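Page 42, continued from yesterday. The earlier attempt failed because a stray header line got pasted into the input along with the sequence. Redoing it now with the clean sequence only.
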Amino acid sequence: MLDNKDIENLKENFVTKKDLALMIGKGFNGVDEKFKGVDKKFESVDENFKNAEENASVRFNKIENRLKVIDSKVSDIVYRNEFEKLESKVKEIEIILAGAGIKL
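This time it went through. Structure tokens are written below.
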């Protein structure tokens, strides 16, 4: 059985449906405000990714251009093995020409 103290305690802690609805509503308002903050943070993250992507694109373009310059310079280089083959052929031609009495 409930005594007067228990009844008073129940009256103090009694929550109506309206009170409960208001508490839930306040809770949702708080969540809504937190989501606005999260949205702002995601906008910032999106902007950072966009900037990073643009920076990476610029850097890759620079690298690509440098590789093109290097490639153009390398295409003008005679490789050592090709040079040695040509050198031996020139020596053979010199021997042939010397045998024919032609001096270079």
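Notes: The chain has a mean pLDDT of 85.
Reminder to self: strip header lines before submitting.
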